[in-house]
Amino acid sequence: MASESPVQRQVSRLASGTGTPREFVLAAVGVYVLWVVATFVFEGRIQTLLRPDATLDRLVYAVVANLLVGTLLAMLVVRRIVASGVVTPARIGFRPLVRTIAAVVAAGVVGLALYVVQNPPTTDPVVVANVFAQVVPTSIAEVVVCWVLVGGTVEALLRARGSNRYVAIGVAIVTASVLFGVYHVGHSPPFNTLPQVALLTVVGVVTSLVYFGTRDVYATVVFHTLLALTGVTQSLAAAGRLETFTDLIVPLFAVAFVAVAVFVAADVFFVRRAPQT
Q: In principle, which of 2, 157, 158, 208 could form an S-S bond with 21, CB 3.0–4.6 Å?
């Protein structure tokens, strides 16, 4: 039988959960690139999120870019990382239920307060609920890819190489935040412009502080979604389409529910039940 090539050996190691931190970083970056490309193809190219009436386009974007790539594929790689023993579930944000509930409530209160004090275009609860539901599937993918997968793996790689704990966290914060900002080149205007990419990198730093401070992925998703409300409502107002969100949009909530259900299922069955090697 012919011997395996170096690439084949590396793929086998990753699939079995025995890869090195460096190999997992490369896998994480690969998922990130695929996710950005899918975001551009199904959202930025046709400006899906700026068209509230584009139900089918929004569904395809949410399913392909955010559910299949940004959540399921990313969580499968996270499972391999946990199985390898590089990180523990708690270290990358998957905490006990009671602690998570408390963190989510705190993140929700702080996030809503930040939204209100920024003088947003609207505080109509129906509009806010619609926009929140629209953003949730994207936010889940953003947090999983940029922070859990890339940020958590970068931190683990640096710690494995003997770096100081705070240096490792600092590098992970910068990496996750920059990648989050850059990823928006695949989105609709105005988020794909250079000033917005720079601004969103700063927003990414705020999310990073919440993620690495709480080590709770659900609280981070809630806080990150609330942070996004201001930018999304402003873009909708600038496009003259905010009034289309004044009635409850059932498909948005249906997609959001599915996104949360998929994420919770991936957490329970992929990450928390990952076999330790």
A: 157
Render 115-175 in DSSP notation, one character per residue.
HHHT--S---HHHHHHHHHHHHHHHHHHIIIIIIIIIHHHHHHHHHTT--HHHHHHHHHHH
Q: Which residues have a Cβ under 8 Å from the Cβ of 58 and sit 6 or more positions away?
A: 48, 49, 51, 134, 251, 252, 255
CB 49 within 8 A of CB 199: no
Whole-angstrom Cα distance, residue 186 to residue 113?
29
24-60 pLDDT, tens digit each = 888 999 999 999 999 999 999 988 877 767 778 888 9
Instruction: Give me the amino acid identity at 42.
Output: F
Which are the contacts of 243, defined by CB distance < 8 A and separation ≥ 6?
A: none
Packing angle between helix 74-84 and helix 250-266, nearest 10 degrees? 20
Report whether 176 contacts 204 (CB < 8 A).
yes
**Ranges 127-131, 175-179, 186-190: which has the least confidence:** 186-190
Q: Which residues contact 48 (CB under 8 A, 6 or more apart)?
A: 42, 54, 57, 58, 61, 188
Q: What is the pLDDT of residue 213?
A: 96
Locate tokens 């997609």: which residue?
255
DSSP 25-39: HHHHHHHHHHHHHHH
